[in-house]
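Weekly sync, protein design subgroup
Attendees: M.S., D.O., the rotation student, P.L. (late)

Item 1: inverse folding check
M.S. brought a backbone from last month's batch and wanted to see whether the design step gives back something sensible before we order anything. D.O. pointed out we never logged the input encoding, so this time it goes straight into the notes. Structure tokens as presented (139 positions):
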């Protein structure tokens, strides 16, 4: 735990938070600035800044809990679906890995992603980007 981290402070009980679910490896609590009521943040108990920093043995507990929360939020709050997302550094207001689990309904005002979409200039450019990623993943 990091004493300066607000999420670590919630888990330590130093700062109040509306905890909705806890496991051995994770804690989920309500976001104080929710997109919609029921917007939860799921965090690993051990402080890691990004998904890439999360040790392999903690990936499964984090994502199985995210899956459970996403499946539960819909019937619990009468939502038609859910939005599950992670920001790494950019748009990550607290530098502690957290998964957003947000109840969704049609025409709720949230439009796709929070940023504008773009296109590739050509199929050749798309192939070049794909090749770059394949090469990086092969390393």
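Designed sequence read out in the meeting:
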């Amino acid at each position: 735990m990091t004493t300066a981290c607000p999420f670590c402070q919630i888990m330590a009980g130093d700062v109040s938070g509306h905890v909705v679910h806890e496991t051995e490896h994770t804690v989920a609590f309500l976001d104080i600035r929710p997109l919609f009521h029921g917007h939860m943040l799921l965090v690993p108990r051990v402080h890691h800044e990004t998904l890439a920093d999360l040790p392999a043995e903690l990936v499964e507990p984090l994502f199985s809990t995210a899956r459970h929360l996403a499946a539960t939020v819909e019937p619990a709050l009468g939502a038609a679906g859910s939005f599950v997302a992670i920001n790494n550094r950019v748009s990550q207001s607290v530098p502690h890995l957290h998964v957003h689990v947000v109840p969704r309904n049609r025409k709720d005002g949230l439009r796709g992603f929070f940023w504008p979409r773009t296109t590739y200039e050509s199929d050749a450019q798309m192939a070049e980007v794909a090749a770059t990623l394949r090469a990086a993943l092969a390393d």
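Discussion: The chain has a mean pLDDT of 90. DSSP finds three helices and five strands in the chain.
Action: P.L. to compare against the previous round before Friday.
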